[in-house]
Amino acid sequence: MPRLTLIEISKYREWTEELDSDREGLVQIKQSTIYRNLQEVFWNKNCFVLPFRYDYYIVLSNGLSEEDLRNIVEQVRDITPYGVRTVSIVHKYPVSALLKATSIIRRKEFYYEESIEDEIVVSHIDLNNITEYALETSIYESYIEILAINYYISKQVMSIGGITSYLGGDNLIAILPVDRYIDLIDIMPSYLKIGIGISKIPRKAMELSTKALTSIRKGLVNKNYYVLYDNV
């Protein structure tokens, strides 16, 4: 069962409303700074922050101790307007972990669930020929197409207990229950490439998923999906 950590930027609405009407640029700059710092500190702990809503972040956080998490919270507190609320949950189904974490974060400023962690499954999903489509139409039209596909994939992934995140370009990430990634392969359209990495270490799972996707792109495997396991 993977560990997911939900981070909420405290009093996000209050903070934005404290600024005057000429605030949106400042809001975007602050959000980008917070995300950059979160990604950096978690990446250094072999974790990965999924881009989500800018007032919430989801962290793939296997191997992160309660002490580690408390130290990170202290590190990022000074760059956030009013600090953060943090809930760390271990659950077989990522979507269920977030449901539970969302409930807890309303009541607690910090919560860490001690439990045995299992492998995490990261699926790196790539759209075929999206670059060519953009050249034939426009960058904006290809972006609309990506958003539509992202919505479709997100609904399908949620139906098997997983969650998704858009990483930019034409790349999507799906975090899946360890026994359901075959279901993803079965329900995904053939025009998608799916690189799957499986490891107890989030950063390693990300690396393996990218390596698997690269193998598909280079034609090293004769199918639209490839699975790599961490042998460590």
TrEMBL record:
Q: Which UniProt keywords apply?
A: GTP-binding, Hydrolase, Nucleotide-binding
EC number(s) reported in the record: 3.5.4.29
Which top class of enzyme applies to this chain? hydrolase
Reaction(s) catalyzed by this protein? GTP + 3 H2O = 2-amino-5-formylamino-6-(5-phospho-D-ribosylamino)pyrimidin-4(3H)-one + 2 phosphate + 2 H(+)
Record keyword rRNA processing present? no
Which InterPro entries does its entry note?
GTP_CycHdrlase_3, Nucleotide_cyclase, Rev_trsase/Diguanyl_cyclase
- Spell out the Pfam families in the cross-references: GCH_III (PF05165)
Kindly give the PANTHER family that the UniProt entry links to this protein: GTP CYCLOHYDROLASE III
Query: Of which family is this protein a member?
Result: Belongs to the archaeal-type GTP cyclohydrolase family.
Q: What does this protein do?
A: Catalyzes the formation of 2-amino-5-formylamino-6-ribofuranosylamino-4(3H)-pyrimidinone ribonucleotide monophosphate and inorganic phosphate from GTP. Also has an independent pyrophosphate phosphohydrolase activity.
The protein in question is named: GTP cyclohydrolase III
